[in-house]
Automatic annotation (TrEMBL), chains A, B, C:
Lineage start: Eukaryota, Sar, Alveolata, Dinophyceae, Suessiales
Sorted UniProt keywords: Repeat, WD repeat
Name of this chain's protein: TBL3 protein
InterPro entries for this protein: WD40/YVTN_repeat-like_dom_sf, WD40_repeat_CS, WD40_repeat_dom_sf, WD40_rpt
Keyword Repeat: yes
Family annotation (SUPFAM superfamilies): WD40 repeat-like (SSF50978)
Superkingdom of this protein's organism: Eukaryota
Gene3D superfamilies in alphabetical order: YVTN repeat-like/Quinoprotein amine dehydrogenase (2.130.10.10)
Length: 133, 133, 133
């Protein structure tokens, strides 16, 4: 049930007793801190996931990957809540402050996203603010 | 108006509706979050900029680079407010807490800086605390 | 008295006027901000130290290394307070929140640790929460 490639990022939930991990095996996994069992696997990236972070009071995850995608995930269902294909190469960096997110990539682009919280089943939706530059 | 090489770091201002980005094209750029246009370009590094961070309540930027330099910049004018040449090789890491900054480099040195806030046009000046070690 | 290889991480103490640095020379060093002299050297890793962070209100350090080890150190004595050998390869990432720590490695494992604060000479002890996965 564990990862099959190196783990690039780990992050505690700000709310629940869980940890998320991002791996070279292209998945994100969620671990229960009570018994440290894998409780979710988030699949959809086609290449190494470099970073994972909790959003929306721990109800969503953001992931960025070597495949050039930013993805948002619902914690409870492991469904992908959104895919942003702005980058044509590796997403190297992300900054998140409140309901604003910005990413930078190997393609020399930066991509801003804006979130609207609590719109659906208690979780937020994120949208491109503008065309990336 | 965008970057010409990969983006290594992005950071939201703590105050204004702007984002800074650091690129392999040796520049830092500042983007307006309202329309996501590039509003400043900070030029002076001779090699990839690895990290950028806001200082002094968002009125200054710090950048660290593969060229071995730490630079400080005035947001409003895009002028370089200071250059620290302590490192003879890549600046790999920086920690900033309040008016204290410390960097570490590929040259095995660490360099401490101390800031004095609000001394000139509302922005701070930074000085070497000691000879780097 | 300085490092002999590149410096991968620097961190200010949250309490004392000191800075810790992690180096490719396999040591962590502690520097006094008053005169920037090296006041401690923490030896025990066999390979580059990638990350260092303060714990327990600045009384302990955590280090993670290319040698696959997580180590905890007493600031005052420079003694190693614990070694965690869960990883068989480079420890790439660590997240620390309060008395919980989790690491991820090139071996595809993640390792959770739990701290108990203030149990001995004012400093905490850390334990494996579970077998790593």
């Amino acid at each position: 049930k564990g990862h099959r490639r190196g783990v690039w990022c780990v992050a505690f939930s700000p709310i629940d007793q869980v940890v998320a991990s991002a791996s070279g095996d292209a998945t994100i996994r969620l671990w229960n801190l009570k018994d440290f069992r894998a409780i979710r696997s988030f699949q959809g990236h086609s290449s190494a996931v470099l970073r994972v972070a909790f959003l929306a009071n721990g109800m969503q995850l953001m992931s960025s990957s070597v495949d050039g995608l930013l993805k948002l995930w619902h914690i409870r269902t492991a469904e992908c809540a959104g895919t942003f294909e702005e980058h044509s190469s590796k997403v190297w960096c992300v900054d998140i402050v409140g309901d604003r997110m910005v990413s930078g990539g190997a393609d020399s682009k930066i991509c801003p996203l804006s979130g609207m919280m609590g719109t659906q089943r208690g979780v937020g939706t994120w949208n491109k603010l503008y065309q990336s530059c």
